[in-house]
Amino acid sequence: MRKSLFVLPVFISFIFAFSSCNNAKQSEDEIVVEQIKTEPKFQPVENLNFELSFQTKSNFDSGTFESNFQFFSKYYSRDTTSIFCFRGNAQRNNPSRGRISGRPIDIEEKWVYTTAYDTTTTEYGMWGGGAGWTGQPLLINWTKEQKEKLGIENQLFLENDDAMELIIGSLCGDVYFLDAQTGKETRDCISIENPIKGTVSVDPRKNGLLYIGQGIKHGERFGAYIYDMFQKQELLYINGMDAFSYRGWAAFDSNPIIDRKSGTIFWPGENGLIYKINFGANRKKVYITKLRYKHKNLVRQGIESSMAVIDKYGFIADNCGSILCIDLQKMEVIWNIDNFDDTDATIVIDQENNGSYYLYIGNEVDIREPFSLSTFRKIDARDGSEIWRVERPGDGSPFMEKTNSGGVLATALMGKHKGDSLVYCLFSRIDKAGRGEFVAINKYSGKEKFTVEYNIFSWSSPIDLYDDEGNIYIFSTDVARNLYLIDGY
Question: DSSP per residue over 197-261, as a string?
């Protein structure tokens, strides 16, 4: 079934200007925690050779440390209004908040913010400005006391308890802080002076910690950064050029995820390591556990997707198509399966009415270029077994003389309310013309409900909108600056 939609082609003329940045030299009720009912089954892992490394990073004498991480709560933060990480929670299935009034019929530009533009030429080209991939914004509802600690001075913003601060990283190397209603700066940007491609994270405890992954090397540093926005200082730099890694590429496009009870940080890297990070008392010491792995079919190390979590189990997909279930307490691999090709989209987790958990993930046409099938799958979280799959052809040949993958690069979207039975995915470059397809799939049967054709492909992860009746609408974009508003049911 082909679906009708409203498409708004938008042309925005960007005028880039450099601005000054800070360079690095609520009474809330406890939410009841629901634990996973069924643990993943163990499968043989003879084809993996995973190793653990534990180290202490501090200016003091090293000592032993045991993380008090137990499991992720059902709710990522006690503040359920804010968006602290890519796709809104640990399951990566909640990218939007609130309701809209009635059926949307138009898209109106409310404000435009102009980022800086970096003209530095690197080995990997010039990255300019704006947002990269995944590069989606966060929305944080700070208390007045927290706003004051952040150095926000605008009185209207300070006094507005409903005000939302939009936080986004840019390819120019800056992280920007804006009033979501007006697009005006709430405070000075922070710069890592290197391109940021991925989505930044704010600590769900609202303690002022900001997590930034570097996308491309500009200068001497190449890795990940943790900033204390209250103290206005860099708290930790992780050098991604790690001798423990099997790969010498230090980018961190993956979005980190933080357990709000223990403060434990989980952060996959493009060097192929998965980091488990804990700060000691008063943040004087940092304890880092690193998991590395390899297997006979792993021709390309590195993780660009973000980790999705249920309870104590983390799920990641890598540049070679490995999908792993990891016990995050022990940092041990539980099961692994093959996803057939590079997988940069993030796994999305859904819990069905019977309590069972399922994973949704698609792959690219990259290693198998120039032309092959891209597969979107539903997977049982307990053991990695496939439930169903949907496929489209994908063109992975160079696009406009540059390397460019086809297939699934946008993270899937789980429908809610009246769209609860559906999961949505985007296939890019389904033919040599570079077209895309947005597909709605019945999550129980795997049957396609409708398809929307895009004249050009998209890597952007769509978001869901709901009216007071629970009707679902999808907002999406493509690489030609078209905006799509789709009736989701």
Answer: -S--EE-TT-SSEEEEE--S--SS--EEEEEETTTTEEEEEEES--TTSS-------SPPEE-TT
Q: Which two tokens stand for residue 79?
A: 């503040």
**Residue 15, C-beta contacts closer than 8 angstroms, at least 6 positions apart:** 114
Instruction: Please state, in angstroms and rounded to a whole number, the distance separating the CA atoms of residues 373 and 369.
Output: 10
- Res. 281: pLDDT tops 70: yes
Of residues 92, 422, 447, 391, the one with CA closest to residue 257: 92
Q: Is 46-338's fold the same as 347-489's? A: no
CATH value of 347-489 in 2.60.40.10, 3.20.20.150, 2.40.30.10, 2.40.128.630: 2.40.128.630
Counting Cα atoms < 13 Å in the Cβ hemisphere of 108 gives 4
What is the model's pTM? 0.91
DSSP structure string for 140-197: E---HHHHHHTT---HHHHH-TT--EEEEE-TTSEEEEEETTT--BSS-EEE-SS---
Which pLDDT does position 24 carry in this prediction?
46
Three-state DSSP state, 282: helix
Contact 187, 93 (CB under 8 A): no
The DSSP symbol for 417 reads G
46-338 architecture in CATH? 7 Propeller (2.130)
pLDDT digits (tens, 9 = 90+) for 360-376: 999 999 999 899 999 99
390: helix, strand or coil: strand
Higher pLDDT, 30 or 96: 96
In sequence order, the 6+-apart residues with CB closer than 8 A to the CB of 439 are: 376, 390, 392, 424, 425, 426, 427, 448, 450, 451, 452
Q: Where are the beta strands (DSSP E) in 12-135?
A: 21-23, 51-58
351: tokens are 């819990």
- pLDDT band for 54, please (50, 70, 90 cuts): very low
- Residue 391 Ramachandran class (φ > 0 left, ψ -120 to 50 alpha, else beta): beta
pLDDT, residue 48, reads 57
Task: For residue 265, give the 3-state DSSP assignment.
Answer: strand
